[in-house]
Design goal:
This protein has 520 residues and is α/β, with parallel strands linked by helices. The chain has 21 helices and 9 strands. The strands form 3 sheets. The protein has a 5-stranded mixed β-sheet with strand order 1-7-6-2-5, with helices on one face. A two-stranded parallel ribbon has the order 3-4. Strands 8-9 form a two-stranded antiparallel sheet. Helix 9 (300-311) packs parallel to helix 11 (334-347), helix 13 (370-379) packs across helix 19 and helix 14 packs across helix 19 (473-503). Mean pLDDT is 83; it is low at 1-13 and 506-520.
């Protein structure tokens, strides 16, 4: 229910009307379950065995190809021939996973024209097919530690990835320089494949693109990935079936469809070369238009908040806030959001992960009164009668924190300091709170003790200010109460004027109080 004091809603802070991109709700029909059961004792074990054999053979070829290799130079000669064999092996592995035919749209550009390929949406480890369908065995961007993992390490090294050392403070700059160096090699180095979303989604939208691939300012070839299957056994994201289950379900399907669409090479403008964020957003828009899906400002940080919400015994969805947008608009950091989520989890009901009016009142140790309803409505941006975590964060930032000014606090302190001696006693606090918010004596006593940190029997302004900084909702409540009292006063004055006019109709005819007196 909208309150009397409504805040203007910034379009940029409105939540997107899409489902959670980090949840895959795989619902199997009876027929699907029968198919998986039959596949589990027929084709799936055979396919899995062939995959293991091909993987071991690929590992052996990768060991040979990288033996004594100078990682600072692109592969050439017989090593490059080994890479061609690895491409064939990789494509054969996909065949045994049920991807008998992969539909290719568009034309892969050579690395001399487009040194980078940006692939989206990233929804599963099956997306790695893009390494095998370009002009050759493409490279990626990988953590340095991955090159030392048994079996996987040799395969990773054979693609000659751009390695990122997270312990190196200059890692980001070095990565950009390495990409630039390879891009300017006129095709000597293989293309670099990047999944700019940085995490897996359910393909319902394109989340925020990380800017790493776009900082070098080099041409990129956007690539759109589609899995047009009736049953989605591929999506592997933060909430849903695990990686092994997804693999097994996929092996149980007789045929799996996958489409890879290569878009025209995107050449950045001078403005985009200087602004990686703009460059990334424009490339994302191109891919989204081809896929006909929306874009959002969700990021990997939203996944971290979802995990944190789950650890607080709330639904993981509760942590989904479009962090990138809130960071840009409100200046919040991830650590700030984690702290706010902890506060929120202490207020919200665990089952639904939202705050109702009663939860809000309980948190503030107040009964449900008109001022509290007004403050609640300012937080409740969509008028649903509940405050979600996103609304809570925005409410603190645009309602309570701005109200938590020196002027508001001094005005509120004077309201409670009935004796004017710079101290608030429990009796004076109780008198105002009972009158304004209909609080019970026990609740008032608990609140007084929470504010009176040194326990000397009265609240100083410093204690009052310190408490308000930690609990900014109270500042918003005081401001709302003052606004309501002001509105009531205006209403009272208007009613008095109307009563005077009703009692003295001649004033309306004669036009002024002076003329009315003369006539009398």
């Amino acid at each position: 229910m909208p309150g009397k004091f409504q805040l203007p809603r910034q379009k940029s802070l409105i939540a997107p009307m899409i489902r959670n991109p980090f949840v895959h709700d795989l619902r199997l029909s009876t027929l699907d379950k029968i198919q998986i059961a039959v596949g589990s004792v027929t084709i799936a074990p055979i396919r899995f065995l062939f995959l293991l054999i091909l993987l071991l053979l690929s590992w052996l070829i990768a060991i040979i190809a990288t033996m004594g290799m100078d990682a600072s130079k692109p592969m050439a000669g017989w090593r490059k021939f080994c890479k061609r064999i690895l491409v064939i092996m990789g494509r054969t592995m996909y065949f045994f996973m049920g991807f008998h035919y992969i539909k290719i749209r568009g034309k892969p550009a050579p690395s001399s024209e487009a040194p980078l390929m940006t692939c989206a949406p990233h929804s599963t480890y099956f997306d790695i097919i893009t390494v095998f369908v370009g002009e050759g065995l493409a490279s990626g961007v990988s953590r340095k530690e991955n090159s030392t993992i048994p079996l996987i390490g040799a395969l990773t090294t054979s693609t000659q990835p751009v390695l990122v050392d997270r312990e190196d403070p200059n890692s980001r700059r070095n990565t950009i320089e390495e990409i630039k160096k390879r891009a300017q090699s006129t095709g000597a180095w293989p293309q670099i494949i990047i999944f700019p979303e940085g995490t897996c989604t359910n393909r319902s939208c394109l989340i925020n693109f990380k800017q790493g691939a776009f900082f070098p300012g080099m041409p990129v070839q956007p690539v759109a990935l589609k899995y047009p299957n009736k049953l989605d056994t591929f999506t592997w994201t933060w909430q849903g079936p695990g990686g092994l289950k997804i693999l097994w379900y996929t092996l149980c399907q007789f045929h799996n469809r996958l489409e890879v669409e290569f878009l025209p090479v995107y050449h950045p403008s001078e403005e985009e070369k200087k602004n990686a964020r703009l460059y990334a957003a424009n490339v994302r828009a191109k891919i989204a238009a081809v896929l006909n899906i929306p874009t959002t400002d969700h990021t990997f940080d939203d996944c971290m908040l979802m995990v944190a919400a789950g650890k607080s015994d709330m639904p993981m969805d509760a942590g989904l806030v479009e962090f990138q947008k809130l960071r840009e608009k409100l200046g919040l950091k991830l650590e700030d959001m984690r702290q706010l989520l902890k506060q929120y989890s202490n207020i919200a009901e665990k089952e639904g992960g939202v705050i109702g009016i009663d939860d809000f009142a309980k948190h503030l140790s107040l009964p449900v009164t008109e001022p509290l309803k007004e403050l609640f409505s300012m937080y409740d941006r969509d008028g649903s009668g509940r405050i979600d975590f996103r609304e809570y964060v925005i409410g603190l930032s645009v309602v309570s924190q701005p109200a938590n000014t020196e002027e508001t606090l001094q005005m509120a302190f004077k309201m409670f300091d009935t004796e004017g001696n710079g101290k608030i006693t429990e009796d004076s606090l109780a008198a105002i709170l009972r009158s304004a918010f209909n609080m019970e004596k026990m609740d008032i006593s608990d609140l007084f003790k929470a504010v009176d940190k040194d326990g000397n029997g009265f609240i100083t302004y410093d204690e009052f200010e310190a408490f308000s900084k930690v609990h900014p909702e109270y500042a918003g409540l005081f401001k709302t109460y003052q606004d309501l009292k002001h509105e009531e006063e205006l209403t009272r004055v208007e009613e008095e004027i109307e009563n005077v006019e009703e009692d003295s109709p001649e004033l309306e005819v004669l036009g002024s109080p002076v003329e009315g007196k003369k006539e009398a």
